[in-house]
Fold these 4 entries.
Entry 1:
Amino acid sequence: MARNKAWRWLVLICCLPLLACAVLNSPADRHEAASTDFTRRLRWLDVGGAAQYLDSQVREEFLERFSGEDLRIVEFSLERVEFSDEDRRAAAWYLLEYHLLPSSTVRRERFRLDWEYREEGRMSPGTWYIVTPFPSLP
């Protein structure tokens, strides 16, 4: 009986850190990874990979826009993020430096993309999606 009680305590002690980590990870904590991956993929012109972060309402337009362009990205980076609605919405400002072939003139655009956190289930973490269209590049 005492051995069974000790076993329960051991299991509880081992599980507490895992539960604590799950509770401490807010949606805002998960945004950084999603935004970093999105910027990295677009910087390397992995348009399909970057598109996975866009809501289905704006994804097709994004894929069409970037599939045939002679776009070359020099730099794409996140400048700042502001969270709202209990960290389930984010306004992110980006800096994009690019040029369109055959031109070699580098252009610089700053713009905002709105992100939304969506939970997929109680036991699985949610996903961040961009819900605003990607701006047109002049």
Note: The chain is about 40% helix and 30% strand.
Entry 2:
Amino acid sequence: MNISMPVVMKMGDLMNEEEFFQFCQMNDTLEFERDSQGNIIVMSPTGSFTGNFNSKVLGHLFLWNETFGLGEVFDSSSGFLLGNGAVRSPDVSWIREEKWNLLSRDQKERFAPICPDFVVEIRSKSDELKYLQDKMIEYIENGTQLGWLIDRFEHKIHIYRHDKSIEVMETLDVSLSGETTLPGFTLDLASIVK
């Protein structure tokens, strides 16, 4: 079966934040997100190539962060409670240290009520592009400063900025800049995409 987007379970507002967190903990072999209407989205595992690609992007961001020490890096299994009530798990994300430190220990142990400053979504074969574009807009509307949607299949990069501008690059053979959000960070996509 070829699924073009994640499976959505129409749950409405049947689960509050605590109940959704516990639901995810009881089903820890599955990955879920929740949209702003309370619908639960069952996320499928990525293919091996996409998973490898994700880890390379994450690794580059991690090394930059180790050098500059400006924040915290998160992988795709980290859930964040956005201001609109959605719980999202970007493929790669980063939060400024001063924002992260405002959270209590208990908040950090759950779906942290914070929107990452930087997010990356990498399109896998099962992802519908429109679904990912909507997620990127949601991140920006909830406080993300910079986001990259990397579409390996159409060979495009969609760059989302806090001013709500969207730039589309028609090639993966580029070096991406972290701009003012991640000062000094660059990602040479050509070296990752092979």
Note: Residues 1-5 have pLDDT under 50 and may be disordered.
Entry 3:
Amino acid sequence: MDTLSALSLLNRRHWLVVAGVTALVGMPGPAWSSEEAPDAFIARITNETLNTIKSDKALRSGDIQKIMQLVDSQLMPHVNFRRMTALATGPAWRSASPEQQKRLQDEFKTLLVRTYAGALSQITDQVVVVKPLRRGQDEKNLVVNTEVRGKGDPIQLDYRLEKTPGQGSGWMIFDLNVVGIWLVETYRNQFTKEINAAGIDALIASLVARNKINAKPA
């Protein structure tokens, strides 16, 4: 699958990150040093988001601005955007100036927030099943496997987490795997091509342009 095809698939599937009406946690995982186990963390933020949508008429009707506010306030605090952006940018991140890093992070976040928000308005009756944790994982690179069930075939959805003491539950998301495609790797392929062709500033400009197009009413 080429990069553009993979990105298209991700754009159609990103809403599954928060699409579970109920999250069913599987067998108990190993004891973790944080207060909340990573599988319970994924189940909690999924349910909190969906419960908010169910209780708000404007959100249920697909008010995109309100949904974007919900995503930004309720979901994005659980995402380590700096690490995600650095991984997606690749080696060029280290040579980027602090201002370039900030702009890349801000534009990448805007891109993902709008993607999630647009998809949330399409939620129906999906159920997210959180699978038993694999033992012996590194708390800085831990994967929680889930499966989205509803109409049609089940869809694989995995979260890559890191434990960050002092930030809420201690767990932060920094990558997603949708039907076998890791988000960071997919964007890194595209970003690397743009950086190699014209540099960091050209990538930033490309993200700005894409976000402006996405912001226009359908």
Note: The beta strands are 23-25, 127-130, 142-149, 155-163, 171-178, 181-182.
Entry 4:
Amino acid sequence: MSEAAPYGVPVTDAAVADRIDVALVHRLVAEQFPQWAELPVRPVAVDGWDNRTFHLGEEMTVRLPSGAGYALQVAKEQRWLPVLGPQLPVEVPTPLGYGRPGTGYPYPWSVYRWIDGRTARRERIDDLSRFATDLATFLRALRSVDATDGPAAGPHSAWRGGPLSTYDAETRTAIGTHRDRVPVEVVTGIWHAALDATWTGPAVWFHGDVADGNLLVRDGRLAAVIDFGCSGVGDPACDTVIAWTLLHGRSRAAFRAALGLDDATWARGRGWALWKALITLDNPDLAKAAGARHVLGELLAEHTVTR
């Protein structure tokens, strides 16, 4: 049985996820990478649900998709991270092994080099505006990489990089569902503005999930960007959502200025942020629900200031 998810978003296969443990990783590594069979395996301190990650020795990690939709991302990362990495200003994951299904596990999987760092939180960042500028520099470098033959938006990216209209019906339903909790006219206006600000530029590389959990900090500064599972080529507006989830005030302005974003791209970014916030307002994970309320508050405050 799979976990329910919004339209186009990969779902977790709970039966598979429940079987992903240290013993399974040991078996897969021993069978397919015997040179690493004696290395210890342990869970990472901060893990996700779409992919489960384990330390392999001290210098590697093993990453296993928890559903068929996420498994689509493995070949993409294996193919493109070695191309993208040398052209980017901070560390990104380096594939070291390409695993295949086995020992009862049904999906491809990966071995990566371990990247040291802590997930981005405001209290771990020395200067949030400098962090915002560093992140914008990374995204500008990513967008400058030759996009020829890169993967266009689709199920592998949960339609990041594609048109926001993919989520139009879902967003309108969510607005109706939460009509007693959100100012319907205002959020509908934000959504309409995002839909009207259509992308007309050339397809460029986007990360697809620029979230605090995928940004690593060392010594108070941005050190690495991980999890390129939703990456591809298309409209990069989805990469601006961090402006409302982590950044605020001067740091948000610094991010926008350093990226050189026009009003249309900013509007589409607001749309991506609004969609995600609305569909996670009732998330059983209380932290995610609180994050959704925070983003809505930031969007509404910005609307009040700029209208």
Note: The chain has two domains: 14-113, 118-306.
